[in-house]
């Protein structure tokens, strides 16, 4: 499968933010004159390119084909993760306008600090009885709280039986044995290590269940970046928002 080939060629993984755009994109197969599949590309909402892949045997045509794709669809922008060497190269070749969008994080593999939570603190999978409290704390931070609880995506962090933080685990549909993790801290308990603890415990849970924890944050959100790093996540991959001059007028 072409999508599996693309995933296998990446230098580093990506989180659920980019995956959601990819999964909601329209996919197009690139065919050679022989009828063989030479690659594919994907476009989100008729204007943002989220995928461009060509098999090694056809890479000599990549620059030309990439240009044709941009023109055919009047592409206005691209999401490019720096672990995608081909798409990054295509964007650089055309001197497109590049903006830094996000950091992608992965598990450093180092030992996780501490062997457990102090007395009076608990971290556990959420149950339906937690839904009201979670919604009260988080508001519209997420959608479909009951569905997420039923799917095992949400975890609660409590101090003295008081809900102070929420953990999120979103299993990847594109990356094998991987999941994006995230957190929300109660407003009254921010700057008290809640976020770091939630991410650390999610990492611990992922490791115990054979899952690669991934995460991400907006490039200019220094607080989130520090929280992830202090919990043991590291970043070497960026998500770029790339603008195409004159794009966005096609169908």
From TrEMBL:
InterPro entries found in the cross-reference section: Acetyltransf_19 (IPR040579), Acyl_CoA_acyltransferase (IPR016181), GNAT_dom (IPR000182)
Keywords: Acyltransferase, Transferase
Span of domain N-acetyltransferase: 118-251
EC number: 2.3.1.-
GO MF terms, alphabetically ordered: acyltransferase activity
Pfam family, one: Acetyltransf_19
Superkingdom in the source lineage: Bacteria
Coiled-coil zones: none
Name of the featured protein: GNAT family N-acetyltransferase
Organism: Paenibacillus xanthanilyticus
């Amino acid at each position: 499968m072409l999508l599996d080939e693309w995933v296998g060629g990446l230098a580093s993984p990506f989180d659920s933010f980019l995956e959601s755009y990819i999964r909601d994109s329209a996919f197009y197969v690139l065919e050679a004159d022989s009828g063989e599949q030479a690659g594919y590309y994907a476009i989100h909402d008729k204007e943002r390119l989220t995928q461009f892949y060509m098999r090694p045997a056809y890479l000599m045509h990549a620059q030309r084909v990439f240009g044709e794709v941009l023109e055919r669809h009047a592409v206005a922008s691209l999401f490019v993760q720096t672990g995608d060497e081909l798409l990054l190269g295509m964007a650089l070749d055309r001197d497109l306008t590049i903006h830094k969008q996000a950091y992608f994080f992965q598990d450093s593999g180092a030992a996780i600090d501490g062997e457990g939570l102090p007395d009076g603190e608990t971290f556990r999978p959420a149950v339906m009885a937690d839904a009201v409290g979670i919604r009260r704390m988080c508001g519209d931070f997420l959608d479909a709280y009951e569905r997420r609880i039923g799917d095992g995506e949400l975890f609660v962090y409590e101090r003295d039986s008081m809900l102070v933080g929420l953990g999120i685990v979103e299993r990847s549909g594109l990356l094998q044995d991987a999941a994006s993790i995230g957190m929300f801290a109660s407003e009254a308990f921010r700057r008290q290590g809640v976020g770091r603890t939630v991410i650390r415990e999610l990492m611990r849970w992922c490791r115990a269940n054979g899952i690669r924890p991934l995460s991400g944050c907006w490039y200019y959100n220094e607080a989130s970046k520090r929280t992830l790093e202090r919990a043991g996540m590291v970043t070497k991959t960026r998500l770029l928002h790339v603008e195409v001059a004159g794009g966005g007028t096609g169908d």
